[in-house]
Specification:
This protein is 61% helix and 5% strand. It has 218 residues and is mainly α. The protein has a single domain, classed as dinb family like domain (Four Helix Bundle (Hemerythrin (Met), subunit A), Up-down Bundle). It has a three-stranded mixed β-sheet with strand order 1-2-3. A hairpin with a 3-residue loop joins strand 2 and strand 3. Helix 5 runs parallel beside helix 11. The longest helix is centred in the middle third of the chain and has 24 residues. Bound molecules: nickel (II) ion. The site of nickel (II) ion has 6 residues, from helix 7 and helix 11.
């Protein structure tokens, strides 16, 4: 939904627009707590994601993410992977497709930064990509496989980079200058954010505690 596109990793994916309005939140029938989460600022989102990788090796984290997801969805029936906790929220299948296509975007960004001098890194509307890409109808395990293969290609590339190449940068519409190293760290955190989301969905935690609201798509 358009509303969802205003927040979360969208701050990174695409042009940041104004924060969601109160009316939009009511239309989605969300709680006050959830409204607070949904109106998380770009700054807070950045800080929350930074906490995931603090003191950790983002490359090691990036390596394990596809395996972690494979473990999480192992033996889970497809119907469950396609179920949504609420209208407008992503199913596990849609999250996996998002991870695959986000990795596709990052693949391009890393290489643009390595090849050109401070290239502009265009954002994208993740909800639009989900619609035109028909994420809801992907095969969940194929989505994970696409994510895994793209990730492996990027890990192979990381292994070749010199210190100077790690410091090459691009210019993102909202975040300004970002280096290859920073994007690598961001993507490790982005994985964790979605892995936590998958855990919550499969754990049924939010299904049982509806009053506490639903996790955001980001
Ligand atoms: Ni995301």
């Amino acid at each position: 939904m358009g509303f969802e596109s205003l927040r979360g990793c969208q701050f990174f994916h695409s042009a940041y627009r104004s924060p969601p309005t109160f009316i939009s939140a009511i239309a989605l029938d969300v709680t006050e707590a959830e409204q607070k989460r949904m109106s998380e600022t770009a700054q807070k989102y950045k800080a929350r994601l930074a906490a995931y990788t603090e003191g950790k090796d983002p490359i090691a984290m990036q390596k394990t993410a596809p395996q972690t997801l494979a473990q999480l969805i192992k033996d889970v029936p497809e119907a469950k992977l396609r179920s949504k906790l609420a209208p407008g929220k992503w199913s596990v299948t849609e999250i996996l497709a998002h991870l695959a296509e986000d990795e596709l975007s990052s693949s391009w960004r890393y290489r643009q930064m390595l090849e050109y001098d401070g290239p502009e890194l265009l954002g994208f509307d993740q909800e639009m990509w989900a619609r035109v890409g028909d994420y809801a109808w992907w095969q969940p395990r194929e989505a994970l496989e696409m994510f895994r293969l793209l990730r492996e290609a990027n890990l192979r590339m990381f292994a070749q980079l010199t210190p100077v190449q790690w410091q090459r940068h691009g210019v993102h519409a909202e975040r300004g200058e970002i280096t290859v190293r920073e994007l690598c760290r961001h993507m490790a955190a982005h994985d964790m954010n979605h892995i936590d989301q998958v855990r919550r969905i499969l754990g049924g935690k939010f299904a049982r505690k509806r009053s506490k609201g639903y996790p955001p798509n980001n």
